[in-house]
Amino acid sequence: MLYDLIVIGGGPTGMMAAGRAGERGARVLLVERNPRLGAKLTITGKGRCNITNAEPDIRKFIAHYGQNGKFLFSAMSRFDNENTREFFEGRGVKTKVERGQRVFPESDQARDINDALLDYLRESKVIIKTKATVAEVVSKNKRIEKIILSNGEGLQAKNYLIATGGQSYPGTGSKGDAYQWLRQMDHKIIPIRPALAPIILKEDWIDELEGLSLKNVEISLWQNGKKVESRFGEALFTHEGMSGPVILDMSKRAGELVAQGAVTLVIDFKPALGEKILDERLQKDFTAQSNKMFKNILDWLLPKKMIPMMVRISGIAGEKKVHTMTRAERQKLLKLLKSFPLEIKAVAGFETAIVTAGGVDLREVDPKTMKSRIIDNLFLAGEILNLDGPTGGFNLQVCWSTGFVAGESI
Ligand SMILES: Cc1cc2nc3c(=O)[nH]c(=O)nc-3n(C[C@H](O)[C@H](O)[C@H](O)COP(=O)(O)OP(=O)(O)OC[C@H]3O[C@@H](n4cnc5c(N)ncnc54)[C@H](O)[C@@H]3O)c2cc1C
Asked: What's 198-348's CATH class?
């Protein structure tokens, strides 16, 4: 047999695994449907690639994945977030830590991360076959016999790693092909759903705010008059709703709530100021600038692009002189600054979701080796697994840790 291992999928997981297996002396073939490797990786973190999170406490790190996180203990004890940084630094990619412990390449270029992995594959003598879509996985007696490409070509190896990712952002090649192969091989797939997805809003004027980013805001989800969840941080308006870290991290919960009924998304533009203090500041400001028009006194309170919208929604004439404003009008403004309501229409689907929740049932994968407990010569790693984390570098760390362990075990 020509190969010890065929890796299906040239994303971060497949590249890390193939590189590690090759480095350990295995003869490895990496098969990728796209003309180049790492199509999704190069657009991560808005092209900057948030490679991992610098949280030093492994338990806290793992808690970010919820219940399923404990599956990662073993893999992370072999290759953790610190090892990720060392790996890339060792290949000449300096890294830096930003707010929320997010780790990025110092160059802000995801391409540098991809290039480092390509170097690793070269050093490890991995054979790369691009423009090669796996159409079928042929198995018999709990072993994979061969894979068949869409052009009919059959390929064989002693072992196989499925690293085809999830089903989100299918334009990058991750179309979810492997779920069907795995079901046919008697693997259980936990139902997949989009996670870390933008939220679509009902307000028909929302496109006017497209591109506006909000910093240091608190956003909460409300249903039946009750606050269900809230988060502090950054968000962004899109042409049909909102995205950005706070929104993405709440999207899973928002999806569950939408399935039960109406959900309101409420923005607090001034979370650091309580209502009373903010009202006192408004009064002071109104007195100091009493001859100004209402629309011209909002600069210190809101981003520029938000002001016309706030004026419109408040129902207070923008040209109104501040000294003529009533207490009720000031209270209205105060209320909108502290709880600006938007109605959720839906959570976006796989097309724009950052990750796929659900996937291969973790009970059917050995966490020490990433070997399938169902198929003898099959390994599984990365986003194909039923493991997803919040924004902040947690999803790529799954790829590095599980990819490394799979490559080493093979
Ligand atoms: C816009 C965006 C931004 C993101 N930003 C971040 C971030 O900053 N930090 C972070 O931690 N995570 C981020 N993520 C998530 C992260 O990119 C994924 O979790 C990660 O890429 C999953 O890696 P993977 O190797 O398991 O799968 P993928 O990256 O999806 O790679 C799978 C590969 O398999 C190939 N493939 C699939 N089917 C076949 C087939 N039948 N035959 C041959 N090849 C096949 C695909 O073409 C693809 O190249 C982001 C995701 C998106 C979409």
From this structure: mainly alpha
